[in-house]
Amino acid sequence: MSKSSFEEQIMQGVYVLGRQRDQLASEKRKLARQLRYAQHSARLSSLSKQYDFGMVFFAALGAVSLILFDARSGSAAWLTPVLSFSMLLFACGSALRGRKMVSRIRCFHSRFGSWQF
């Protein structure tokens, strides 16, 4: 084996190692992007479920307290309907925030879901 062919083989080996390093770095970036996408998607889904639970919880509490309200006259007779209506309003606010969250999830998936990972 001549000295020039040995040097050529060494250069080819260095070139192959460089390409493998670049491919591994590209794959690492791709996996990191997939992980970020999955984490953010899971976080948005969890927030959406929390808003749904809050809406149902406060709507149920407000409705039950309105149903149980008996119009007895007393010093605190106004407190029960006011409290129940405020819980219902809070449930409506939570529903609006939940709708906004669903819109954010759709926007996120339409923007980043089509990426070829």
From TrEMBL:
Keyword Transmembrane recorded: yes
Keyword terms, alphabetized: Membrane, Transmembrane, Transmembrane helix
Membrane-spanning residues: 51-69, 75-96
Protein name: DUF4231 domain-containing protein
Organism: Rhizobium grahamii
